[in-house]
Amino acid sequence: MTHGYGRPLPKPKTPLSQPALLRVIVGGTVLMALLLACAVGLVFYQVREVGDTMLTPTPTETVPPTQTPVAPPTATPAPDTPTPLPTATTTHTFTPMPTATMLPLNTPIPIATFTPIPPPPPPTVAPTFTPQPPRATSTPRPPNTRAPTYTRRPTNTRRPPNTPAPTRTFTPTRTPTAVVYALKLTASSTKSTVNAGQTTNFVATLQNIGSGPDTIDVTLAAAVMEGWNSKMYIGGADRGSGPVTLSLAKSGTKAITVQIVASAGASPGDVGEAYLSAVSKKSPTGQASISFMVTIKE
C-alpha cells in the first residue's frame, strides 16, 4: 500500500492475537478482584475489633457495707438469698466476606468482537510535481588552452615633493530654464512723401529674439482714406492684410514688404497709414508692431 506521494507505507508491528489479548484482560481482572476482597476483609476485621472494645463493660469494685454491731437476736433469722447481678451480653454480627468466583478448568472464555478501523480513502487527485529544470553546468575549458591571466591594479603613486597638486574643474549642473517668447519688428524707413496716385513699398524685418522656436501670426491693418490701398508681400507672394502664420527658429528672421498705394484724387497733405503686427501663438507676451505713414506732397 502506498500513500499519496507514491512512497510505500511502513509495515505495521505484529499485534497480539485475540485469544492472548483476552487472557491478559481476564487475568488482570481476576487479580484486581482478589486484591479488592483482601482489602474489604481487612476493613471488616478492624471494625470488629473496635466494636468489641467499645461494648466490653468496665468491671467496678464492690465496697462491702460497714457492719454495725447489733444485739444478738432472740431468734435466728433466715439467711438472706443474694440477688444475682445482671450480666452484660454482647451480640456480634458477622458479614460474610465476598469471595472470588473461579471459573472451572477448561471453560472457554468469551471472546469480545472488535471492529477494525477502516483504512483512509485514497486521495481523489494525486498531487502533480513540476520537474525542476536542470542546473546549469560550467563549460569546461578546451584542452591545451592557456588559463587567463590577471593584471594587478596599479597602486597609488606618491606625488614628488614641491609638485603642485592638480586642480579639479567642477562643471555646475545646468538648471532647465523656461522658454522665453519674444519678437522684434524693424524697418530702414517708415515714412514717405509722394504724389497722388503713387505706390510706396516699405521693407520690414521680423526677428525671433526668444529662447526657442516660435509660431507667429502676422497681420496688416490700414488706416487710410477712401481710394487708398495697402497690402503685404511675404516671400514674393501677395498676402493681403493677413493673418499669415510663420514659423521661426531661435534668432530666425523673415522679410515682409508693406505696400501703400495713394489715391489718385488725394489732396496735398493727405496722410495714409498701415500698422504691421506680429503675435506669438505660444505665448501672448511675445508680440511686436510697427507703423508706416505716406503723405501727399503739397
How would you characterize the overall build of this protein?
The strands form two sheets. The protein has a five-stranded antiparallel beta sheet with strand order 1-3-8-5-6, with no helix packed on it. It is α+β, with helices and mostly antiparallel strands. Among the domains are: 18-48; 183-296, Sandwich (Immunoglobulin-like), CATH 2.60.40. The protein is 13% helix and 24% strand.
Brief account:
The protein is of the alpha+beta class and 298 residues long. It has one helix at 18-55; strands spanning 183-187, 191-194, 199-208, 214-223, 229-234, 237-240, 244-248, 253-261, 271-280, 287-296.
CATH-scheme architecture of the domain at 183-296: Sandwich
**Beta strand count:** 10
Oligomer: single chain
Approximately how much helix is present in the residues?
10-25%
Order of helices and strands: HEEEEEEEEEE
Largest sheet: 5 strands, antiparallel
| Average pLDDT taken over every residue | 78
Q: Count the helices. How many?
A: 1
CATH fold-level label of the domain at 183-296: Immunoglobulin-like
Through-space gap between termini: 130 Å
Structural class: alpha+beta
Please mark out the parts with pLDDT under 50 across 5 or more consecutive residues, or reply none.
none
Gyration radius (Cα, Å) is 72 Å
Shape: elongated
Q: Strands of the biggest beta sheet: in what spatial order?
A: 1-3-8-5-6
Kindly estimate the percentage of residues that lie in beta strands according to DSSP. Answer: 15-25%
